[in-house]
User: Fold these one by one.
Assistant:
Number 1:
Amino acid sequence: MTEQCKKLLALLTDKKATIGIIGLGYVGLPIVMRFCDEGFKVIGFDVDAKKVDSLNKGKSYIKHIPSKAIKELVTSKGRGKAARFKATTKMGLLSKADVVIICVPTPLSAKREPDLRYVEETAEEIKKELRPGQLISLESTTYPGTTDELLLPLFSSTGLKAGRDFFLVYSPEREDPGRIDFTTKTTPKVVGGITAKCLELGTALYSSIVDTVVPVSSTRAAELTKLLENIYRAVNIALVNELKMLCHKMDIDLWEVIEASKTKPFGFQAFYPGPGLGGHCIPIDPFYLTWKAREYDFATRFIELSGEINSQMPLYVITKVMDALNDKGKSLKGSKVLLLGMAYKKDVDDLRESPSLELVKELKAKGAKVDYNDPHIPVAVSHRRGFKMRSTKLTEKGLKKYDCVLIATDHSAYDYRWILKHSSLIVDTRNATAKIKSKKIVKA
């Protein structure tokens, strides 16, 4: 074991290491809290000065993370364990960190190819401050080979050697906003290292904040682990979305079928249809592997087909809205439509890749007059689709003016019986009205 390895291992074991976390969003902020919970000193880095200022004032901008918890992090007493946290935009402070964890976005480009600009820009900042004894962990979802093909050569160009002078690992994030049955602490953490010493230190790092660490043989194996998890979900959601369209033609309730299938105690896991895929992971991650597979002259047909089906769902929903209005003797053009739920899933304030954004765009493109309501998202902005909207209040009088109410996200806050009572037509994409029988409800 090298001298640098011994020193860092001792710092991690004694919880005296300073942890630097780059990217203070849905992934980075929960990790900040876990390290602070365990008594580590944490420096949070973000390019968004408003986020940094908010955190340093003890204010949260993520719904499921209360401001009270953030305020405790930035006080001198911490969370009862002398936790110390400060956010900053100054990347020069990276040299102060013994561990640097990268939690920046990895979106797709306009051509649906991996866009690693945030990882690359972050890596360049780390390179400037890289010193012996530091551990770098990439958590951003990406294709197999990113850590050893992109980060390793960049950091090695400083003259420092991985596994001797600095240490490099990949550990995919597994955050699921709004989930309460698993926490960051209780969710197992996969880790892959560039060398055996890198893996040893990566395991020691994450063992200090999670109950279970799962070491794998390489960073590539760890990178593919995250992609497999989300590809598995994307493919199965595509399957039930396709079955939903078939079941509508066959006059079969797919939701009833899924519930019946769930009674089998083995060999089946329930997935549910919807208006499309949302969130930062499932609509994006599969295409990282599809892109990388081309380098090996391999076509990932199954993944691409599921992506095609899922991306068509918003248009399918629009068709169902058109048909439902037509049955009422109305055209979509000129009709007033209220979309319920702008978030990508139930009871969260996360707008990333939400199918509701596409629904709004398509409804407007076809001449509908569109409003939305979401108790968790007061303002919805989509630069790519060219609109900014504010959530409208739900009132008896207000509901009666709409020709159609489109349920896009089944938030718990909604009283669906009350909404139905004051609406002339409801198109339900989430089976939110499953327990209500009414000719005014159309499933989509």
Number 2:
Amino acid sequence: MPRSSATRAKLPAAQGYRMPAEWEPHESTWLAWPHLRDDWPGKFEPIPWVYAEIVRNLARHERVDLIVNDANWENRARTVLEKAGALSDNVSIHRWRTDRVWTRDSGCIFLAPPADRHRDKVDSSLLALHFQFNAWAKYPNYTQDEKVGHRMAKSAGVRVVQPVSVSPFSDQHRVVLEGGAIDVNGCGTLLTTEECLLSTTQQRNPPMDRAAYEQLFADYFGVRSVIWLDSGIAGDDTHGHVDDITRFVAPHTVVTMVEANEQNENYAALYANLGRLRNARTADGEKLEIVEIPMPRAIVFEGRQLPASYANFYIANGAVLVPVFNDPNDRIALNTLAKVFPSREIVPIYSGDLIWGFGALHCMTQQQPAR
């Protein structure tokens, strides 16, 4: 049954909450220290040092909330961070068990309070959406990761909401949604892909269709316009996360990945996505300014193409961390993002080994907005 007007009035968007854009001020960035060797089989040794480089650069601009499995892993993390010059008072450590380290997907999504924080009966704090996490409807080991979102919210001292959906064909159910599946401009527009949310492959929420997702985004994120792209890139373990293909970088501007080689596996999908972006409108009716970045050459390891993409960058308070792959297009990506973010330091992070875990910088981070 559809929600009643009384029920809808209690939902976050009706109370003035919204999901802020990533470039808005942060209080901290959440990360989880790598520990599952099977996520990088044969390549685990360099991964902690990549994390140390990420922590070192983030901690210069905002607090880093670092999740470690236990005391033993905390000691290991501290040793690596200290050797790399990355351990500082701006790093807070939390001992919570995790299955994997992709905090973008397992962690909560923080919402910003109404602009008018003094309205009667409106909480002026952040709010945390704790979606259900089921390891991208693919892996069996996720029981610890499913708890991470609630733990993050409790640590931040904010109220937790578990989003539910209703359908004419089923009772309400708790919604599965990963942070990497969506991207927002903070002004009412959201990007996602049909491949991730509407496909029957790795299906997260069988009862939900396009209209149900759009209602969910309206009720919980304050979204008024959804831009549906077609599909993600080859090798993407999540089956179509948008943060590997197209990202908002300003209220009316997106960066999107393109592929010039018509023989490349990504050519058709990225070309189709580009067409949709050209026809899209934001919530205020404006056309998008589209900034194109060429994909790196295919990275293949043990016969499998990996989801290497410059779109998996992370926007921090004073910096943008960008995955690079020792590819000629690295420089194009860095120069393009420097023009898009003229007031932020552009920090290249070598991710050729990291991407063997099927994720990069945006996948492993989750921002906590400033209050």
Number 3:
Amino acid sequence: MLGVATMRILLVGNYPLDHQQSMLRYSEMLRRQLVDKGHQVEVLQPSPIIGNLVSQPFLRKWLGYIDKYLFFPIKLRSYCQGFDLVHICDHSNSMYLPCAGDRPASITCHDLIAIAAARGQYPRQHISGTGRMQQRWILKHLIAARHVVCVSSQTASELRSLAVSTVQNISIILHPLNYSYAPVSDEEVHQLRQTLAIADDPYLLHVGGNSWYKNRLGAIRIFHAFRKRRMDARKTPVRLILAGRPLSQEMLDYIAAHGLADSVTVLTNPSNEILRTLYSGASALLFPSLIEGFGWPLIEAQSSGCPVITSNRAPMTEVAGEAALYIDPEDESGAASLIAERFDDLHTLRVPGFRNLQRFDADTIAQQYAMFFDSIVSGKINQAMPRVVSQ
């Protein structure tokens, strides 16, 4: 690549038994894109050795710590010597940074939500004593890093407030798509509708887990208020599809108490192909998160031609740009009224959504990473890289 010498780059990935699929896809995407740029790239991740000895989740979690924090650092220290640069793909593995020794090293910070919760910034969230210890450990090494990539301006701002002046270089490189989302045919959408037994009903789609900040119950509450307004106006009923983790008992109780069982469909851990079809057929993605590090579903939806309804706060506003309907995620009645008012016009967000995606081109972002790595290896990062790479 013009202006960037070929480098030998070691990417440190996540422990497979933690099942952090987005992080596993992220490290593989980065490897693939950098190889396409002509660099020699490997992904090294902790191997499940002790963790594979049991199937019980609680024991597997604790035995996995031996794999991650005892065995893997020994391997990493010797393995990284053959590379020009070591990059930790997930900030939750910041404790691996010292293993790079005298090798140049950097890390990607995806969000600071768990760290902030452990520091008491979200009083209603209970964090165990061991959880607080782990997050302090992560933060200690993260703010000692010399070179950090943040995936949004919001995350960079939060890191600067924590690190003050300890992190020497914070650059912002947005996420690209980590799967080839694109609109599917009407026939594929129809087939999935038949499978889910939802006929031709219009539907809103929520994608995410049950973490408090995902505001999944809030999405159900907003849908309930929106559905009532549709019914009062004698308009076509709309469904809600919840894709991701199984619902919590609190969510199930709310659905039952408000008579929503016939209007809500739950799809547990759908494949990327099914998710792409869900996006393609949806009237809109409903994504009322309270906080995010980035918010991948926003660009997944836009790339599939799905209009976006999301929170009127960063980083959602940064990621979705001008191609979204913004709501206050904590004003459920107001959000429902705005969605009801704009529902029939949401399709007008599709074209702006496709335009917004140009900022998340994987090839461009890989080039930004290559420039970032090259400037570290060459020792010219202060001159070669702006503080904000892409925004």
Number 4:
Amino acid sequence: MQMMENLFSLIFVVALLAGTALELWLLGRQMTHVRRHRDRVPAAFASRFSLAEHQKAADYTRDRATIGLLEVVAGAVILLGWTLGGGVEWLVASVGALPGSPLWHGVVAIVALLLINAVLDLPLSLWRTFRVEARYGFNRTSVSRFALDLGLQVLLTLVLGGPLVAAILGLMEAAGQRWWLYAWILWLGFSLLVTWAYPLWIAPLFNRFTPLDRPDLRQRIEHLLSRSGFRSNGIFVMDGSRRSSHGNAYFTGLARHKRIVFFDTLLEALSAEEIEAVLAHELGHYKRRHVLKRLVTVSAISLGGFALLGWLSTETWFYQGLGVSTPSPATALILFALAAPVFTLFASPIGAALMRRQEFEADDFAVQQTGAGHLVNALVRLYRDNSSTLTPDPLYSAFHDSHPPAAVRIARISSNMCPT
């Protein structure tokens, strides 16, 4: 048994070091590649981007990557501290000294770990928001609003996550060998409920949503929805400008509660035709059943994850190999949540490739509905306004980007591959 513990510890450390080295290497490639192309606008964008705009995007990408380097190193150090460094062991023992039942101790330990990690992440989050985003003119949030958002996130974690964790821990203790199946069903139901409730009760805690009051644009959008056979529960504008100048649009909710949401910054930046093209792209995800496919994929992966956790939770070497001497349902959940990303990192290119393929399919649908020109104009404007790099490193992009690189995407839309 001791050999199994040592072997698993070794595998974990090697995977963590390899993953950390890989992430640092990819970020280094990204920074080098962007810097190498900083002084020349790619030919495909020469008439649409000024050199100053291109260089701003390069510098913004570099500064974000710098934060990424620090996050990778800090994340590895913190993870080792929680696991082999004895942090989880100490936390669980400290909480166990409090009055209450083992179930209560487990919930408190998990919530405490989440809160401690949030505090540890706070310095880089503040730097990103109030230094990097502000330096490039994107940040519009205040310190008080940032603190309020953080407080609301903590409150939601306690109100929504606390009961879910308690229920899963209760199943682990009382539901027998198949607890993981019942826990997965519970988790899946919870996820669907939150997705359904998000536009109605959660999102309004952070932003104000008002019905779209531009009759010409509303008529255009309703015509697009009608010919696409899509029904929504309203078209809303979100006051995204309260926090950032970045623009976006998205669908949210389930069943009859689906909503179309535009950032107010997006409406200010694009013409009516371009907004329609962006919406057609988002609508393409629904028409091509990407939402359903992603739900099925996530459900299948999570089922496998719960099954794996069900097995690992019975193995002593799993706990001791990660620095915990006394097994418990709470430590099983904590250790699995901490260790799993170390191993799943290497499969990132698979998921990213599938998502980029879906983006291409959504682009195809948008071109069919609104034409290539408006979609290209909208994307180029968004790349420019958001300072998105036009020259990402291909390998970095393969691991991290859910959307195709700008040059590849624009070329494909403009080519004969997409109907016009």
